[in-house]
Design a protein that fits this description.
The chain has helices spanning about 5-15, 50-65, 85-90, 120-125, 125-130, 190-195, 210-215; strands at about 1-5, 20, 35-40, 65-75, 80, 85, 100-105, 160-170, 195-205, 220-230, 230-239. With about 240 residues, it is of the alpha/beta class. It has a domain at about 30-85 and about 150-170 and about 195-239: Rossmann fold. The strands form 4 sheets. Strands 3-4-11-10 form a 4-stranded mixed β-sheet. The protein has a 3-stranded mixed β-sheet with strand order 7-8-9, with no helix packed on it. Strand 3 (about 35-40), helix 2 (about 50-65) and strand 4 (about 65-75) form a beta-alpha-beta unit. Helix 2 runs antiparallel to helix 4 (about 120-125). This is ALKB8 protein. Keywords: Methyltransferase, Transferase. One of its GO terms (cellular component) is cytoplasm. GO terms for molecular function: S-adenosylmethionine-dependent methyltransferase activity; tRNA (5-carboxymethyluridine(34)-5-O)-methyltransferase activity; tRNA binding.
Length: about 240
């Protein structure tokens, strides 16, 4: 059973005869302890505070039965790790940024390619735990005011909190208009006007950060923590 905040994505699942519903990762309408396994891929890095990121993992753990497992993937600050560039960086071609594009109504995540009692869970999400989640050695520029830097696609990150440009493509014309987007060269002013750019928030995780958040919860055990093509990953077991 799948779930997503986007109704359009859920509708696509329905068209493919998959079971899915619309919901928020902070409040999943599934009975506690009813899942053998949960998967959270490229979700938690979209929450803008440490409290909300921790609460999302608490909610994920709530769904699991004792002994159940969860797999979590988040985007990594380190897109070059152990002298190896991630596929995300490698896909930058010809010195020009390859734009991340999405068809209207469909979301493609800009990854390398493109889861007990609720009261006890809430108590785990305390300020005391959050204070223990400080990760040292992360070379990230802090954002001093409310303005977030805009990331240049297919480049390394210079801030943990940023906005990633999303370039829409497809039928963006107004009702009654007939526009052939192929008439204009890619990257031209006319093409950009026909393909709006939106900015999506990301908190990219430093090495050890996701694992530290997970280890702060008494109800789960970290089975494995690893790096995979520009993502930090953790496998959890519900105690």
């Amino acid at each position: 059973v799948g779930c997503d905040r986007s109704k359009n994505l859920v509708d696509i699942c329905g068209e493919k005869n998959f079971q899915a519903f619309v919901c928020d990762a902070l409040s999943v309408p599934i009975r506690s302890g009813s899942c053998d396994a949960c998967i959270s891929i490229a979700v938690i890095h979209h929450f803008s505070t440490a409290e909300r990121r921790l609460a999302t993992i608490c909610e994920l753990a709530r769904l699991l039965r004792p002994g159940g497992t969860a797999l979590i993937y988040v985007w990594a600050m380190e897109q070059e790790y152990k002298a190896q560039k991630s596929k995300y960086l490698k896909e930058k071609k010809g010195g020009k940024d390859k734009k991340e594009e999405i068809n209207i109504g469909r979301a493609q995540r800009p990854l390398s390619d493109q889861m007990s009692d609720s009261g006890s869970q809430d108590s785990a999400c305390s300020d005391r735990l959050l204070n223990d989640l400080k990760v040292e050695g992360c070379d990230a520029k802090s954002v001093a005011d409310s303005r977030l830097p805009v990331h240049t696609n297919r480049t390394s990150f210079h801030s943990q909190d940023l906005l990633v440009p999303w370039h829409l493509k497809g039928d963006t014309k107004k009702k009654g208009e007939s526009i052939d987007t192929g008439l204009f060269p890619a990257g031209s002013k006319e093409s950009q006007e026909l393909s709006p750019v939106f900015h999506r928030y990301y908190h990219v995780f430093c090495e050890g950060e996701l694992e530290a958040v997970c280890r702060s919860l008494d109800c789960v055990r970290v089975q494995k923590s690893y790096y995979d093509q520009g993502n930090w990953c953790v496998i959890l077991e519900k105690l």
